[in-house]
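Reviewers of the previous submission asked for a worked example of the structure-prediction workflow described in the proposal, so we include one complete record here. The input consisted solely of the amino acid sequence. No template or homolog information was supplied to the procedure at any stage.
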Amino acid sequence: MKGYIEDEEFGKVYVELRRGMTSVRFSYHTDGNLLMRAPLGVKVSDLQRMIEDNRERLRHLPQPQTVSFRFGQAIECFRCRVVIEPQHTHAGYILNRWEGDTLHLQAHESADLDDENIKRTISKVISRAMEDRARMTLLPFAHQVANELGLQPAGFEVGRGMRKLGHCTKERVIQLSRNLMFLPEPLVRYIICHELAHLTHMNHSPQFHALCNQYCNGKEKEQERQLRQFRFPILK
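From that input alone, the workflow returned the following structure tokens.
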């Protein structure tokens, strides 16, 4: 039996009730929505309770990832872009150079961009190229958001995490992953606000979420859902 239920935070949650199952399992559907498999006969109220009981774990549930690259592709990033182009002279190499706000990434014209190894190489080159760019654009933006909220962290640093996009240390230093550069600006701001809220609450208590929601102008849950459904244009 299949259907779905609506959740304020996760949106549409697909439900599959299966004969013979004795426990509940969560994963992500290929379209980015949460998928819940449960024993046949479970009531809707029980499904909703199970989501509530597992809410914090579900926020960090890994999602399936697929990416594709092609010559001529343009990837819009935070205040910059990446353009994938063919080059004719260096077989086996991935070249890159910044020209203004555009990163020109050049793979040899014979390269199979559907090959998983080449995808991983391209992803690594792009991610590394974004590190210096993050210092130029992401950190000043983070300082701007903190100033708007009247907050003074000990500092901001650029990190490299893909699953962990932000972190607030005990020393009140906020680390922001270079991979935030692939998010649209509203989600970049959301991550910054999330970490700034940790200056007051070093946990994920109701008080923390209330403060984070205040910093996000009442859009914390909406933006959290958008972040979970976001598909990074590079491999993690």
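The first strand starts at residue 2 and ends at 7. We consider this example representative of the routine output the project will generate in years two and three.
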